[in-house]
Design brief:
The complex is a heterodimer of chains A (about 500) and B (about 450).
Chain A (H helix, E strand, L loop, with lengths): L13 H4 L5 E4 L1 H8 L17 H10 L4 E6 L9 H10 L12 E4 L4 H6 L2 H15 L3 E6 L1 H6 L3 H12 L3 E4 L11 H13 L11 E5 L7 H6 L4 E5 L5 H5 L6 E4 L2 H15 L12 H14 L3 H26 L3 E6 L1 H13 L3 E7 L15 H9 L5 E4 L3 H11 L3 E4 L5 H6 L4 E3 L8 H17 L2 H9 L6 H5 L13
Parallel strand pairs in A: 2-3, 2-4, 4-5, 6-7, 6-8, 9-10, 9-12, 10-11, 12-13
Antiparallel strand pairs in A: 1-11
Helix pairs in contact in A: 3-9, 6-8, 9-12, 13-14, 14-19, 15-16
Chain B lengths: L4 E2 L10 H5 L4 E6 L4 H9 L18 H6 L2 H14 L4 E6 L1 H6 L3 H10 L4 E4 L8 H15 L13 E8 L9 H14 L3 E3 L9 H5 L4 E7 L5 H11 L3 E4 L5 H18 L6 H28 L7 E6 L1 H15 L2 E2 L2 E3 L5 H12 L9 E3 L3 H9 L7 E5 L2 H9 L2 E4 L16 H17 L4
Helix pairs in contact in B: 7-10, 11-12, 11-13, 11-17
The chains are: A alpha/beta (about 500), B alpha/beta (about 450).
Chain lengths: ~500, ~450
Amino acid sequence: MGNIDLQIPEVSIREIRLGSITGFQGGAEELVKSSRCGLRDKSRSFSQCLGCSTSQAACMVILVQDAAVISHGPVGCSSCFHEFAFTYRVNSPLRGIENPTQRKVFSTNLQETDTVYGGGQKLAKGIREVYERTHPNAVFVLTTCAAGIIGDDVESVCNEAEEELGVPVVAIFCEGFRSKVWTTGFDASYHGIARKLIKPAREKRDDIVNVINFWGSDIFKDWFEAFGVKPRYITPYSTVEDLSRASEAAATIQICPTLGSYLGAALEQEFGVPEIKTAPPYGVAQTDRWFRELGKILHKEEEAERLIAAKKEEYLPKIEELRQKLKGKSAYVTAGAAHGHALLSLLGELGMKAKGAAIFHHDPLYDSGSEEGDLLAQRVKDYGDVPNFNICNKQEFELVNMLNRLQPDVLLARHGGMTLWGAKLGIPSLLIGDEHYSMGYEGIVRYGERIVETLENSEFVKNLKNHAINPYTKWWLQQEPYTFLEGGNVQ
Amino acid sequence: MSGIIEQERYTCAIGALQSVVAIPKAVPILHSGPGCGNMIQGFFERSTGYAGGNTSPCTNFSEKEVVFGGMERLREIVSNTYKVLDTDLQVILTGCTAGIVGDDVESLADEFRELGKPIVSVETAGFKCSNFESHSLVVNAILDQYVSKFEDENPVRSEKNTVNLFASLPYQDPFWKGNLREYKRLLEGIGLKVHILFGPQSEGVEEWKRIPRANFNILVSPWYGLPIAEHLENIYEQPFTRFPNVPIGANETERFLRQVINFAKGQGTQIDEEAAEEFIKKEREAYYEEIDNLATFLLEFRYGLPNHVHILHDAGYVVGLSKFLLHEVGIVPKEQFITDNTPEKFKEQIVTELRSTSEKREIPLTFEPDAGKVQDAIRALSHQGRGLIIGSGWDKELAREKDYDFLSAAVPTPYRLVLTTNYVGFSGGLRVIEDIYDRVLSTYR
């Protein structure tokens, strides 16, 4: 693979590196097939606010325990970062952090004059001030649209500061305008971490497995016990020292290839840490495959088989019960790429009908280049096609139109802002924030129980429907949902 | 002030898109990078309104628009906005990308206006100023590009008892909805008709069209919003009266209402002074009935109540809360911190206003938008007795470190939900008291 090049400062964006797209309408099977022969993206002639790379990059570095973060831009570009400070504090008990420290988040606060004369000096001064004030073990510098367009040489400024201060100063190039796929921001932060923080292995640790994840509950500790290994979560709640030693692990797993694709591949290709390429464990069949692959990589095949057998004995009857309860129910899914595929697999496992999905983007293949990692392909193989499978980067107008048409029994979402319209249309809606919640055999049960609960608890959405405020025109709700997607027909 | 800052308590110019969201059935159209809307939504939280948040149209600048300009893209998005969304007013706000590239958004808005569309454009590139300042840019743009079209039906200063009120900045003041409602109720109580312009009490664009009719304007602000009052003075010769801080509790609310009554009389407004005084008296009596009842608790509660406070807020709240807490609650304002990036020229007035709080004591005041620095300053302070910090969500951690009580009353704050609560007025003062002692009492288990 020639996609990972740690010599250059900027990560290659997903559109170029992976051929990722943000516009598609059709079926899941069709998308899987056409993914293998090159996808062409489609643009929209109407669009609503997306997300951008900078906040995705930010969440991967702000939660590093002992680092400071500087957003090089106007204050607005770090406006939402307080939410990650909240996350860090609130989820710290899940990760055994007893005294979570305040997050150190700064902005270079670029002004109009800086856009004329450049913001490089201000950044240089800012890095030194932040160092003096917080004494972090690393400083991360996030770029923004303004810094990118005015052409500040952020890389050189960071390198000079690093030399002077003696701690890593990591430039992360995550300007919003560079990519329509905001998960490029994850890649950008991992690229910086792989370039500047991860050191060649000083020793090899058979007992440590890297887990690339967000800030979810610590489920891997229990799972890994059977294999005699421990998880090292990266990057949220890790330390700069932990990150530098990521190269020493026996293997890397990702809870979501949309998230960890780049770092998993970089660790394998540049530091020799094997990556489990099998798609993450959602649904029974995929969980079987995943535990087997984990056993294989760790040379603990028998342990894997024992674990699989024990867990299945415990959970399969419960899954069957849930199937009975959910028989005949339908759902619509909206989520970021891989997690959306995972939720569709769960629906398949629970015997529910997937009426459609709005998935934020599509990566034809991940950085590992392995087809085994394709969760959507697994979903289609294990549980069949998904109709109305659309790639839609949080375009609410399309979602509203589609939901209004399909009227599923439940809406399943993974990201904020998306459940509102399910509820306004009277459709019970469920968002689970903890990305580990529905993994493994027990996850199917946990998630299934929440769906049952959501379906039962419908009074609130029914009431809301009766009083919902709707800014969308009647005309729009009568059009085809993909009217404004290239090739659509605007009357 | 243009150095680096930690934990910003305001956002950039495009943050004033929330002032558009606050006008019933208006829609902000962002000509900006893809993440700007998301950032603003993340800053204020629960701030979607009618067509903000994920509903707002956006050109989502990509590399292509940065290189070739985004005018065609914007034209397409605007024309399709009319098909998809049912709105009364559209306001195009530019981000840094459009600002640096130099797209001529004004002429595009003109094109649509010529077709009869109620559309306005305003330059709000993030590096230009803060949202405290750009709120005025947005309002003045609406006045010039929209309200001015309806001047014939709305003769200037034709209604002697009508006023336009400019006070709480939508969303930046977490209590803006409740505060505006309370201002309106109070001013109606003394016999005025009020254009409140933002929030559910506003009649939307119909009310905006009637702005010229008002006899005068009321500005409640230490500094932000002043360009609006000055602009209206220029274009409609409407004079204005400015009250310098958020009026919280009985003393300041009475002072505010009397200032307005006196000003109104000078403008030929017909005020029934007796009725106005009767209204104030009733409000005051109801207020003191509560304070009277509460005083025993404040004086006698033997398990510990805060005796001093540090406030981190905008200038209007720092001054308003300090006055209120000292005189009406008995909590002494110690070092105070204004985090709104106050322009230099207004600082002296604000210092003077705070000084007027008490002849007995000096309240140390610092202007500092870098709230990380402010926190360090507070960490280094030590006072006798139990302390209280009033600030944003960031300060919850500081309060815990210092073992102080904490009231979240500024943005950004993920630790508190505010719907229609008001801190303004007599009732607002009572609410502040409830909030402080609710938090204090909840520490006893």
